[in-house]
Design brief:
The chain has 328 residues and is α/β, with parallel strands linked by helices. Helices cover 34% and strands 25% of the residues. It folds into two domains: 189 residues, Rossmann fold (3-Layer(aba) Sandwich), CATH 3.40.50; 129 residues, Nucleoside Triphosphate Pyrophosphohydrolase, CATH 3.90.79. The protein is built from ten helices and 18 strands. Strand 8 and strand 9 form a beta hairpin. The longest helix has 16 residues. The radius of gyration is 21 Å and the shape is globular.
Length: 328
């Protein structure tokens, strides 16, 4: 389990801000929750990363090339991802994480917070979001959010999807009950490591047409999935995806045109105990006419507004495509 933490690259004027960052690092480490953060050494970001890493926790940084050069990326990490753009940074941080927490910070922290909050409103994820409200730092912001509700620009239930507490322990305890139950388990309630089965590894085809993403629904299922499936033992990704798409949709994938879009990890639909699906998503050109195979009950071209029709991993793909301006 990993939580993404947004926070300032400055320390702020109160010692309490620095102390809160260190305390959050200690609490997450004690609960065996890995840290995903912005990857540099400065301000509260450096305090959290240094604290958690020194205690033996997993700490993953994600930083764009330009910021890595200007602000010095932290090297004492479990892993550092250096990406090209801020959009890629936020998308990868989201995909690596099971929840989001914001410590005090500036414009960048607010921008990251509001983006994942908006994605939750759109149904693109059901991951919990929380604010560590150190010394009332976020109270003025929350008053404005209440004003948005009062003036009719935000529904109250969307304001209530975010949890707020000055104590990181209370905040994390509250995550387990912050969203409605799903499949007998609270949507924000994460299974213990001992309960988790091995992830399901699959290949998926990303095909966009007229600003919408191709999805399929198999017989007996309610949710839609990206077309594809499991690779056979010893089979390469191009060969496996071509075989699966041929069986499902009757078209020939051009294996030479395949390029990786993203690696997605999310809760697997239809499995108990929080089992995950790991999905390697590829763009690829094809020949032939899309013809559903026997196991395919329905084809659908789906946009972000219909994300709830899709399995959790598919919602991440929709989000990533929308960020790149590829969907309507």
């Amino acid at each position: 389990m990993r939580f993404c933490v947004f926070m300032g690259s400055r320390f702020g004027r109160l010692p309490a801000y620095r102390e809160a960052a260190a305390e959050l690092g200690r609490v997450m480490t004690a609960r065996q929750i890995g840290v995903v953060y912005g990857g540099n050494t400065l301000g509260l970001m450096g305090v959290l990363a240094e604290t958690a890493f020194a205690l033996g926790n997993e700490v993953i940084g994600v930083i764009p090339h330009a910021i890595a050069e200007a602000e010095a990326a932290r090297t004492e990490l479990s892993k550092l991802h250096v990406v090209d753009t801020m959009h890629e940074r936020k998308a990868l941080m989201s995909r690596l994480s099971d929840a989001f927490i914001a410590l005090p910070g500036g414009l960048g922290t607010l921008e990251e917070l509001f983006e994942v909050w908006t994605w939750a409103q759109l149904g693109l994820h059901r991951k919990p979001i929380g604010l560590v409200d150190v010394d009332g730092y976020y109270q003025l912001l929350l008053r404005f959010v209440d004003h948005m509700v009062a003036t009719g620009f935000l529904r109250a239930e969307y304001r209530d999807t975010i949890r707020v507490d000055a104590d990181p322990v209370v905040l994390l305890d509250g995550f387990a009950t912050s969203l409605a139950p799903r499949d007998g388990r609270a949507a924000t309630e994460f299974p213990a490591e001992s309960e988790r089965a091995e992830p399901v590894d699959v290949l998926a085809w990303v095909l966009v047409r007229d600003g919408r993403l191709l999805n399929v629904r198999t017989t007996g299922k309610e949710l839609f999935y990206l077309p594809g499936g499991k690779r056979e033992p010893g089979e390469s990704d191009p060969a496996g995806l071509a075989r699966e798409i041929g069986e499902e949709l009757g078209v020939r994938i051009d294996q030479g045109s395949m390029r990786l879009f993203d690696l997605i990890s999310d809760r697997a639909d239809g499995f108990a105990n929080g089992r995950l699906v790991r999905m390697a998503c590829y763009f690829a050109e094809y020949e032939g006419e899309l013809t559903p195979g026997r196991e395919i009950a329905e084809l659908a071209w789906i946009g972000p507004a219909e994300a709830l029709r899709c399995a959790p991993a598919g919602r991440q793909v929709l989000s990533g495509l929308a960020e790149r301006g590829l969907l309507n």
